[in-house]
Amino acid sequence: MAVSFFKPIADASQFPKPRVPATPKFKFSALKLAKCVQGEVNDTLFTRNGRGAIGIAGTALKNTDSNVILIPAYHCPALVEPFIWLGYEIRFYPVNEDLSVDISMLERALTDDVSHCVVVRYFGFGQNNNEVIEFLHARPVKVIEDCAHSLFRFTDHFENSVNSVPQVDASICSINKILPTIDGGALYLKAPYHAQLNHISWVEEFKACAFIAGIPQALDKIKTWLKGKPETKAASMAESVENEDAHLRYFQPVDLTSASYRHTKFIFCHSDLDTIKAKRRANFAYLTQHINNPAVGQPLFSQLTDDDVPYVIPFLLTDDKHFSTLRKQGIQILRWEEVAISDCSVSQEYRSLLIQIPCHQQLTQHQLDSLVSTFNQLRA
Ligand SMILES: Cc1ncc(COP(=O)(O)O)c(C=O)c1O
Q1: Tell me, which fold does domain 35-189 have in CATH?
Q2: Would you give the DSSP letter of residue 234?
Q3: Within the chain, where are the H helices?
Q4: Ligand 1 contact via 142 beta carbon (within 6 Å)
């Protein structure tokens, strides 16, 4: 059956520039000279984005005859669209309220014709994914692990020390969700596969480096100040070009053959992942302890396991009106509004009620406190 996505509910242009941004900004001081990622990254493909990595995984693992894939019903379209483009038959399996998977429901969805299954590590939390992957190992399906939000689990694939994690056929991550890069996806494939990825020219690479260092933005400000002209907005290097395939909103076929910026790989390898991990966990603890307004909502998880490193704090609102109130107050919360229509009532409800609160490594104490007071002052 063809997949239909819900339309977006809110439009980012309705909201002011955030004072608490969803993602961190680039800082030279956050990089280390020595390589921080352990193990061999050369077997990892650095793609333009996570959806490109998913598309390459889908290409590498495609069967010559039938391709029926199970995808969790709670998702963003960027996860589903590459499989639509590749001609997979897509079926959705339900998620529980805590975003774990009910294995008996998954077993029911796993009919004989299913050839692939996607497992998502939502927002950096493990849920019962290891158990789900173990369950799938005993079945004739190829497992694609979506670590778009779980860079720290993704790195387990090439960190020699870790071998207690269950193996999958492919694993992807989205680098710019956690690190301050313009672009970046990464792909691990269990079986060798050659994907030809094209790098952009060195001139474009240099422009992008200048962009993340804030040089064109600073020059723009100086020009405006000198000429008294309105500021010309620096074009976002991350802005996507018009999609070649109009029915897909996020995935572009060119993503399948595009390498990330070269400096994205450098930032990936030289970021102090231990410090980032500790900060994100500490911010999670601070925010979940201090946000206390049950009339407005509750965090989906109140505790972290030793392996959880939050990308954001999933928070369940009592009423979706709070989303726009929070955005209007400059808190850049996100929400997956465009899930596909399915039988999963949790996913359909979470499309408006489950918000993502930033907890990234660069939030200052002032921003954390302002986040807390904004939430605590909301009225039901
Ligand atoms: C769970 C999940 N998978 C995959 C993707 C795609 O990642 P990217 O935006 O890097 O293409 C996203 C992005 O929103 C995501 O949230």
Answers
A1: Aspartate Aminotransferase; domain 2 (3.40.640)
A2: P
A3: 50-60, 77-85, 103-109, 129-137, 151-154, 202-212, 215-227, 262-270, 273-290, 321-328, 345-353, 365-377
A4: no
**Ligand 1 atom 8, closest CA:** 50
For ligand 1, atom 13, which residue shows the shortest CA distance? 78
Task: Report pLDDT digits (tens) over 211-224.
Answer: 888 888 888 888 88
Q: Which amino acid is at 229?
A: K
Closest CA to 102 of 69, 142, 131: 131
What residues contact 112, with CB distance under 8 A and at least 6 apart?
A: none
Pocket probe mutation, ligand 1, options 145, 174, 339, max atoms within 8 Å of Cβ: 174
Q: What is the pLDDT of residues 225-253, one digit of tens each?
A: 887 755 444 444 444 444 555 589 999 99
User: The tokens of 329 are what?
Assistant: 């107050």
Token digits of residue 135: 């369950």
Q: Which two tokens stand for residue 362?
A: 């660069």
Q: Taking 70 as the threshold, does the pLDDT of residue 164 lie above it?
A: no
The tokens for 215 are: 């040089």
Q: Which numeric CATH code is attached to 273-377?
A: 3.90.1150.10
The domain segmentation of the chain, as residue ranges, is: 35-189, 273-377
